[in-house]
Design goal:
The protein is of the alpha/beta class. It has a single domain, classed as UDP N-Acetylglucosamine Acyltransferase, domain 1, CATH 2.160.10. About 25% of the residues lie in helices and about 25% in strands. The longest helix has 18 residues.
């Protein structure tokens, strides 16, 4: 018989009050509590916690606490992923993030889902994995929901609610998030708002 953890990672209905899962969440909560209470000068201790917390990538992640997650071990990061203040990753299923991806403050990455049937919802839940490519920029306050894939080099506007896949090199925004244009421009040291102002100026 498969464990509740195995069911959870497979995206099947599982019991979140299973003792193994409760202990794993408590471990992650303790790590996050310690991380969020540390001073900037405690770089060595912070790096040790990040390495222990994440499944992979904790050795290079750039983190601005506070940060919160469910398990941590189901989060796999490429090189030098950046999380700004108050990011949340609920990782009941795997979350995979490519290298040099940036998350603005208050971004939430949410893999859990709940049954529509209320009686089942009292006892079980499930989830879907999330995959985010390399060199993605996610604006502050965006929500990335279960099962979504965001392609490499995409840009997600602040406050967006991402409910479906976003292709590579696209700029997408809104609630629900939709592709506004693609491929995304790649000029260095510039923002979409800055480029839009420049284009308007050239038409005057």
């Amino acid at each position: 018989m498969r464990s509740e953890r195995e069911k959870m990672l497979a995206g099947e209905l599982y019991d979140p009050l299973d003792a193994e899962l409760v202990a794993a969440r408590e471990r992650a909560r303790d790590f996050c509590l310690a991380l969020n209470g540390m001073r900037e000068s405690q770089r060595g201790e912070r790096r040790r916690i990040l390495t222990d917390l994440f499944g992979t990538g904790g050795d290079t992640v750039w983190m601005q606490p506070p940060f919160y997650c469910d398990y941590g071990v189901n989060i796999h990061l490429g090189t030098r992923v950046f999380f700004n203040f108050n990011c949340i990753v609920l990782d009941v299923c795997e979350v995979r993030i490519g290298e040099f991806t940036l998350f603005g403050p208050g971004v939430q990455i949410l893999t859990p889902l709940h049954p529509l049937d209320y009686a089942l919802r009292r006892r079980q839940e499930f989830g879907k994995p999330i995959e985010i490519g390399s060199d993605v920029w996610v604006g502050g306050g965006a929500l990335i929901l279960a099962g979504v894939r965001i392609g490499s080099r995409a840009v997600i506007g602040a406050g967006s609610v991402v409910t479906r896949d976003i292709p590579e090199d696209a700029f997408a925004a809104g609630n629900p998030c939709r592709v506004i244009r693609g491929p995304a421009a790649t000029a260095p040291n510039s923002s979409f708002s800055g480029r839009a102002k420049a284009r308007r100026a050239t038409r005057r």
